[in-house]
Amino acid sequence: MEAAATFLVGDGAKVARSALRRFGLPKDLFDDLTQEVLVRAFRAEQRGEEVDNVEAFTVTLIQRAARDIIRGHLRRPEGHQADAPIDAAGDGKGQHTPGIDTDVVARAHVAELRRLLAQELAASPRQAAGALVVLAIAVEGASPADDVPVPKGGVAADEAVAWAGVFYAGLRDCFASPHQPEDAAMRKRRSRALHHQRRLLQELATTLATITDDDDA
Amino acid sequence: MPEPLIRSAHVVGEWDAFAHGFAARDWTPGPAGTVGLALRGDVELEVDIASPTTFVGLWAAAPGGTPRRSTTQALHRLLGPDRLAHLLSLRGQPGKPAVLHPLDDDPYEREWNVRRHPANASVRSPARDRDRGVAPGLARVALAAAAGAEPTASGLVRALAHIDAARAAAIFSPGIGFGARARSDAVAGAELLLDVVRRGELDGQPIDQADLFDALHRLIPLLPQPLDREIRTLAERTERGRLLRDDAEPMPAAMALPDDHLLLDVVPDAPRQRPASPVLDVLDRATLPTELAAAQIVVRATTRSELEVRIVDRARDSEGWWTRAFDVDDVIVAAAPFSPMGRDAVARLLVPPDDLRDVEVDVTGQPGEPRPSRRLRLMNQAIAAGRAAARADRLGRRAAASDRWLQCAAAWDRAGDPARSGLATELADGSRRRQITAIPALLADAVIEASSS
After folding, report:
1. Are B367 and A77 within 8 A, CB to CB?
2. Residue B391 has what pLDDT?
3. pTM across the whole model
4. Taking each helix axis from N to C terminus, what angle separates B398-414 and B374-394, rounded to the nearest 10 degrees?
């Protein structure tokens, strides 16, 4: 994978441009083509394929990808990735989870945050999906559906936004249902999920602030 | 010696030192894209869908710099001895393409090569005007193989595609591995067709009886026993059905099999309740995973900020699939995993209310993987419209073909390719028709057309 990426920066780039030209494809599909090649190389690595000659292997991938583009075959994932489990190392066990501080998420920065979350979907998809829900509610005025669980009364009511994020991110086993009554284990799972979601949002806000500072400088 | 199967006047050859192989090409792929045809000896031929006899290109692998014997044989059959020798001689000049020798035994080519001289640039060649690039039979095998390989192809479509490919491949003399291909396609097609007949799925299908009868009869010599007897019986019934009719119109194939004891009763699924919320046409079908290409996927707006994405009858394999929503600037606004709900796989996306009707939704197994660029997606739409237009052309449905070529032209225009957009427009108004050698409709074309309409 790394060897393929290195080759694509050097001679592989010439091969990719040549392949685009050969099939009458526009030059600005270069990024799509190289991205596709890297994805295929990554999958080959995951399948445990052994590659003797990385250059020949990568060139073959480039040519196949260019042909697939003109044959109208966009990338179609083979199988799916294992979902990242909720990180059990969190320190939010049984603690009260405060509401998400939306002040750190200025509306003007929402698009940039979403781009960062799109990348985060690769590493921790459920947390990133939950963070997108929080942004939609807190900044864009989206309303969760009636059947989305909400905390009962008191300070915990502030957490409704975070609960919705966890629910829409598919972590249904964090909430009671007719088939699954609430118990201590469920509360623990929910607490961890909320904690990790909040931490992800704060990390993103910090990253965004760094990017903004760099731009200003 | 049989004549070369590629008789394009102007073929450019090249040795690719990186990929270790020989490439030859002529025309840039047209507005409907191409299909590939794998031949013996790691030779792959690229066929233009809008104009299937137009030679686009070929690739021949030569690991270590020397082509295998089977590769040389296939190239010899495709290009002829002179062009083969010239192509192989290019190995010493990597990255320097050269126009391969003309086919001097052909008076058309001689005339064309005289006229092609810069001094005669204004003279157009009749040979060039009516493209004579790839043997029509070869193009037909490529189109049939591609129709059967589509992830959305039903059992019947795959059966008919194999049968068509076997029928077309059987006529070729040795050299490109079509003897073995015809036999394997024949067996695959026969087995799939018998399976379809047993399940009663031939009912009401718009298959031309005469064409099916002809195809089945050509299949019989390629089949082992007892498959040949079963196909002979099927062919005889098909013919009886055809002769019972006074007119020559296509009729449902199963009408020819009224007493078929193999037919099984199939109980259709009972209709299921669906939410009454409006269905939105926001799903990006072009990038659906292969496993879901044929799935029924419905997107509904369930509240002012919630979208429900439902994959019908896929509860059991819902694990691992994700759906994402993107705004008009291609920025992700929501992502959610699918989970089982009754018989379906369902995901719910919470999106900003202002974006609800403008988002585009995709389904993926890799939620962290970036989307293809907008331009690539538009190109894919254009190619899909072009393929549908070419199919309508083959079926002789001019009005439908013209509409689809216009859609294809508009999509190429949006994708920033005015050349292909112009070609599609010429195909829509018919002005380019005389330059294209028509390929008769595939057996599967009418079935695909009926299922997609």
Report:
1. no
2. 93
3. 0.76
4. 170
